[in-house]
Amino acid sequence: MAVLSLKYLPDPILRKKARPVAKVDQVIGTLINDMFDTMREAGGVGLAANQVGELLRIAVIEIPEEPPLVLVNPEVTRRVGRREVEEGCLSVPGYSGIVNRSIKTKVKALDADGVPFRITAEGLLSQALEHEIDHLNGVLFIDHLVEPGELIPVSASEEMED
Ligand SMILES: [Zn+2]
Q: Which of 37, 56, 65, 143 has the smallest number of Cβ neighbours within 10 A?
């Protein structure tokens, strides 16, 4: 169990594409646990491996009152609809923005034991899935701003970060 150090914009690792995990072994399991520790410490609802300096396709999500979700090699298989929603990121501290996201998302991935699963999500979970899988492709929420370049400064107390 360890809290890892977060990478912040403009760290180039945030713009790199993470590579697939070949085998979900103990080393990957430790990284997943450390990512949960890091995300919880930072008060986020999601974290991608790029954000802790590992170019591996791993993301964790934990939305209040829902079970924690581990995604290894995740892929969005379907996006339905479009909506505008406010979003932030642990790697872009102090700012949020209005972004375009899907209404509904279908994702396939491996879980923490390497077992394949599929998930259909709406609302915050769908948003978090798109956000974290974007990270693994070097994409940040600021790339989806409805008004390019328009970021909203947020005070630390009301920050809502993915
Ligand atoms: Zn993020």
A: 65
pLDDT digits (tens, 9 = 90+) for 13-42: 999 999 999 999 999 999 999 999 999 999
Cα 41 → chain centroid: 15
Third-level CATH fold of 12-158: Peptide Deformylase (3.90.45)
Structural domain boundaries in the chain: 12-158
Query: Rounded to two decimals, what is the model's pTM?
Result: 0.94
Task: Specify the residue for token string 């791993």.
Answer: 58
159 part of the active site: no
Starting at the edge strand found earlier in the chain, the sheet holding 152-153 runs 83-88, 95-101, 152-153
Q: How far is the CA of 45 from the centre of ligand 1 (A)?
A: 9
